[in-house]
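Before the break, one more example. Copy the sequence into your notebook; we will annotate it together after we see the structure.
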Amino acid sequence: MNIWELFVAMLLGLVEGLTEFVPVSSTGHLIIVDDMLLKSQELLGSQEIANTFKVVIQLGSILAVVIVFWPRLLQLIGLGEKSEPGTNRLKLTHVITGLIPAIILGFLFEDVIDTYLFSVETVLIGLVAGAFLMIFADKKARKHIEDDSIDDITYKQAFLIGLFQCLALWPGFSRSGSTISGGVLLGLKHRAAADFTFIMAVPIMLGASGLSFIKKLDVFTPDMIPFFAVGFLSAFIFAWLSIRFFLALIGRIKLLPFAIYRIVLAIVLAVIYFNII
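Here is what the structure looks like once it is written out:
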């Protein structure tokens, strides 16, 4: 591994970490930075190694969520602080309820998604459609909502948010963008919807990425481990910073700034790829 290769690993980890859990689509950003500028597939000499690297940096981002929400995750599995009698508490069954729709649709249409939906055109559609959903959610958000929290989510809301999460099966739509928008449209505050989104992301992303990781263990040769390690650490650090910053801001700035950014990103991609100007 030379310095340039390690820099590429760090930069791709940075892009993954900063964009995976905010509603701007990490897929769109990785297309710009990797496919157009860094060319990691050409650098690594193999599509399989490049795909494995993307799984590794996604695991780094997932670890950041686990660290941020560690006390809450412990509560979900019965190892954390006990709630007072008669008070609400988010349960593991709420999370499972929210995961059911995406798990079923992802299992049924995995081959179709991998074969037909991973292209610049579909990402552009996802970026713009997701942006309009976010704008619509902000417009319809309850203005005088009580100071509710993630613990006030009902099973019905959890399931319906899970349906919104299915939109993220379309590349470029953004898991956090679709689920936070769904939560807001269902009456949750932006922060409560964001918290539930991040907690739901842990099992579904850990399951998918973990399975892919196990299938690709043969790629982890001694000469490639430094490249993977730098990417993983970079993704973890920048995902942790991004999540903390996003959660501190989402209650004040809502989704509109991210929607505008997505539309600008879609325009940039269209101009670069299709020579519109």
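The chain has a mean pLDDT of 88. The CA atoms of residues 217 and 253 lie 42 Å apart. Try to locate both features in your own notes.
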